[in-house]
Predict the 3D structure of the following.
Amino acid sequence: MRSREPVGIAGYGAYVPRYRASTASISATWRPAGAAAAAVGEISVAGHDEDVVTMAIEAARTAVDRSAVDPATIGAVWVGTESKPYAVKPSATLVAEALGITPGVVAADMEFACKAGSEAMQAAVAFVGAGMVDATLAIGMDTAQSKPGDALEYTAGCGGAAFLFTPAEASLATVEASVSHVTDTADFFRREGASYPEHGGRFTGEPSYFEHTLAASRRLLAELGAEPGDFAHAVFHQPVPKFVLRAATALGFSHEQIGAGLLAPRMGNAYAGSSLLGLAAVFDVAKPGDRIFFCSYGSGAGSDAFSFRVTDRITARRQGPAVTDYLDRRREIVDYGHYLRLRGKIRRA
Amino acid sequence: MDLPRYHRLRSAYYRLEGQRCASCDTLQFPARARCGSCGGNAFEDHRLSGRGTVYSYTEMTQAPAGFPPPYLMALVRLEEGVLLAAQLTDIDAHEVEIGMPVEMVTRRLREHGPRGFLVYGYKFRPLLGRRLVS
């Protein structure tokens, strides 16, 4: 897919909370001594005063600050998440209010499991590319939910990123093309009223993550007439590091190409924030002229793939905290009980 | 806090919007009916930068209902000269120093039980990276 008018990203911002829980502390509670190590060493955990709204506001402020765009020209704000603070009440209106851009703005939350953030990106490209508005903010952010003791708890992290889309001439990276690939696949879901998501175990791999990630990626490459070797960086959704390595290898991307955007080993899987945060980390290091390959995955299921080309403006658009600044300011949570309390998993009434 | 009051305070809570006195140019936060400097009653809205330094602080261990202790309260001197009271976040008591640079972040201030509305507002945390004015 391509928009009528060329579109790009004028500003980007990331957020990762400072708390880290070691997966060894989760293992010590739930698994027998001597069990194999978890897929990641530690996961990022939101503080007691943080949620998707507060994290989205910070990422959005950084994106707008970096963009040199007048906030008054932002015509739409979409927050993609599966951990909204309110089950009914938009997060996006609060983000818009904090940016001071209400009331003349389109605002809504998007839902597509871990693909909700890239869904917002697709819509953002269309709104700007059609000339309906001058700028749109697409955010993917999660405080990833998981049942105590479940396999997901060892990887469920918190974080995400925001991207401000504008006409290409003002951008730090232009959008070359995008595709979407969806089917009805119930690999992971949360029913109304349920506190935690359920998942299909091994079913979340082959017919789900790999099927959609590989299909969307191959379709985008075919549409562009491009080869994996044409890209300086590639970013994928990151449920566990080995899924990313396997998908990248199957497509023909090297370990070097996925290195900058692979954050799961340091913070786990931030669900709808995962692939967008990887893209933000790539923007932190990309050079003018670089092409960036991006492919999300969301259960339910589908993938959005994008190709970006970095412009000369990137070097002047990196003020404010980099993804590594957030990852480096870590505060370890020593015990599993403190982790449960911060994640709201202890019911007192 | 009741819902209508929270609604009226959004611009101050989310964006640190205060006032500039039309007669003497003094900035004040939060908004008040009269200028604390000259007594004037005409103002224009003024959005504060959110950057400042810790003027003083204390650790709250006996806290009012709805604010789980311990937490840190500070007086923050903003770049514009305004002094305001706010919680510090993302920092432990032994790490705070008088004069340390801090920046405004929007955080969840309290919730009214598991079914009630959430109150979001400003806190301050140690400066992280260089932020431009938005």
Observations:
- The mean pLDDT of chain B is 94.
